[in-house]
Amino acid sequence: HTRDCYVSAPGKAILHGEHAVVHGKVALAVSLNLRTYLRLQSTSNGKVCLNLPNIDTFLSWEITALQPLLDCCREHVDLKQELDDDLLKRLRAYTGIADASTDTRSMAVLAFLYMYLSVFGEAESLASITVSVWSELPTGAGLGSSAAYNVCLAAALLSARGIIPSPLTPQQDSARWSKEEMELINRWAFMGEKIIHGNPSGVDNAVGTWGCFLRYHDGKITPLDRVPVLRILLTNTKVPRSTKVLVSGVKDKLNKFPAVMKPVLESVDAVSCTCEQTLTEMSARGPSAEHYNILEELIDINQHHLNVMGVGHSSLDILCKITLAQGLHSKLTGAGGGGCGITLLRPETDALVIQSTIEELQACGFDCWETSIGGPGGGPRILRHRSGPRHQIPSTCC
Known about the structure:
Elements: E1 5-16, E2 27-42, E3 47-52, E4 57-62, H1 63-66, H2 85-95, H3 104-120, E5 129-135, H4 145-161, E6 174-175, H5 179-197, H6 203-210, E7 213-217, E8 220-223, E9 230-236, H7 243-256, H8 258-285, H9 289-308, H10 314-325, E10 329-333, E11 340-345, H11 351-363, E12 367-373, E13 381-383
Parallel strand pairs: 3-5
Antiparallel strand pairs: 1-2, 1-13, 2-5, 2-7, 3-4, 6-13, 7-8, 9-11, 9-12, 10-11
Helix pairs in contact: 3-4, 3-5, 4-5, 4-6, 5-6, 7-8, 8-9
C-alpha cells in the first residue's frame, strides 16, 4: 500500500566562493529558508497525476500506458550512478518532449516520470498517486529551486514505496530521516538534477538534502557542524543571465591574465576559509559584534572579487549602494550578471531599517525577502499536514 505524505526541502544560496569553485577553490553553500513543499496522495483511479501550480502545469497519465516503459528500467532500480539514457529516450518519445527542450515544465515532468518509474519499477504494479508540488522559491534565479523539487520528489517517492520509513511520531509536526536514508534521498535527487541540468556539481541537491552550511572543494562536499543561523535579506534583481556565458567569461580572463587572476582566486579561497573559521568560532563561543564585523568585511571583499572577475552587474551595484546607505553589507550569490544578492542582517539591526531597505529595493523593481540561512533542520522534512500558508495546497491543484 502506497503511503500518503507531505515533504518539504529548502533552497540554497552561495555565501562565498562563486566561480572560484570551478577552478578548485573552496565554496560555502547554505540552505535558504525559502522552501518547496510536496504532497503525495494515494489514489484508486489508475492514474499518475502531477500538479505544479507555480508553473501552471497539471498533467495525468494512465498507469496502463506507462507500464510498457518499465521493461527497460527494471534492472536499474538499484540506482546505478549513471542515468539510464534508454529510459530517458523512451520518456521523451512518450511525452513528446524534444531532445532540445530545456524549459522548466519539460524538465520537471521528465525528472518526475523518470524517478517515479525507477522507484516503482520493481513493485508488483505501478502506484496510482497524485503528486502536488508548490514553492516559495523563484525558478531560474540560482536559488536551487530544481534541487529542492528533486529532493522532495526523491523523499516522497522512496517513502511512498516503503524504501525509507516515515519517521514521524504522533507527537511531532515534522521529522527527518537517518543519515543512510538521507544519503539515498541525495543520490536520487542528484539523478533528477542530472536530467534537468546535464552535468551538475551536486552542491544544490546536497544543500537541499543536508541543509545548514556545506563546504564544497574539488567535488568533495562536507557538512559543517554547529553553525549559527544568520538572518539575511535575499534580493532577486530579476535580471536574466546565462551561467554558462558567465563561467566561460571568468575562464577567458584567467587564460588571458593568469598572473592577475590566479591571486584573485586564491584570495576568494581565503575568504571562504576565513568565513568558515569565523562561523565555527561563533558556534563555539557565541556570536559577538566583532564576528559580525568580520562577516561584513568578507562580504564586501568577495563582492569586489566578483566584480574583478567580470560577473558583477549594474543592478547588483544598486543593491550594494542602497543597503550600504543603511549600514548593511551585500554581495551577489550564484552566477552573478544580475540574478540574486544577499544582505547580512545583524542581530541588532532595527526592524524599521530592514523595512525601509526592502521598500527601497522593491521600488527598483526587485523582489526582496527577509529570511535566514543555515538553519538546523534545513534539509528535507516529512511534515504532518496542517493549515497555514506554507502547508496549504494552492487552490488550483486538481
